[in-house]
Amino acid sequence: MTLAHTSHTDPDTPDVTTAVIGAGPGGIAAGVKLKKSGLEDFIILERADEVGGSWHENHYPGLGVDIPGVAYQYSFARNPNWSRVFPYGAEVRQYHMDVARRFGLYPHLRFHTEVLREEWDDERELWVLHLADGSTVTARFVISAVGAFIRPKDDPGIPGLATFRGRIQRPSDWDHGYDHAGQRVAVIGTGASSVQIVPAICAQVANLEVFQRTPVWCAPKPDVTVPAAVQRLLAVPGLVALGHGVVLAGVDLVLRVGTAAPLWSAKPVMRAFDRAAIAGYRRYLRMMVRDRDTADRLTPTHGPIAKRPTISTGYLLAFNRPNVALVTEPIERVTEYGIRTVDGVDHDADMIVLATGYEVFSDPETYRPGTIVGRNGFDLGKFWTEYGLQAYQSVSVPGLPNRWTLVGPYSWTGSGWHAFVEMTADHAVRAIREAVRRGATTMEVRQEVHDAYHARVHRRAAALRYYLAELNAHVPTYYRNSQGDTTYIRPSGFFAARHANRHFPFDDYAFSRKP
Question: Which residue ranges traverse the bilayer (predicted)?
Answer without folding.
Answer: none
